[in-house]
Amino acid sequence: MNKKYKHLLQGLLFDGIGMLSFAIPFIGEFSDVLWAPLSAWLMTRMYKGKIGQAAGVLTFIEELLPGFDLIPSFTLMWIYTYILKGFKKGKAIEV
Questions:
Q1: Contact 82, 22 (CB under 8 A)
Q2: Which of 28, 55, 65, 84: CA 20 to 30 A from 37?
């Protein structure tokens, strides 16, 4: 499996973990306090450079704010990295 699809599967898994807090009312929001820094760290490891650092900060904030867990930040970052950047460079998209 190449890096692109590995990142997609990892991102879907991490987004799913982030959304689990909705499954357990009240207790789930406490889990976000633990998940927010871990998800930010994972984001910076998956996507290197300034864009990964910026995505890590946004993921951290998104996970800490109540009600924003539905935003699939890892999946959105994958779309940006592997699809939208290709449009910017004028490359054909290979999915």
A1: no
A2: 84
SS3 content of the chain, % helix, strand, coil (to 5): 75, 0, 25
Of 68, 84, 91, 82, residue with least CA distance to 11: 82
Angle at 66 between CA 24 and CA 34, to 5 degrees: 65
- 74 is a domain residue: yes
91 found inside a domain: no
Q: Are 59 and 39 in contact (CB under 8 A)?
A: yes
pTM for the complete prediction? 0.84
- The answer, yes or no, to whether residue 32 has pLDDT greater than 90, is no
Total of domains in the chain: 1
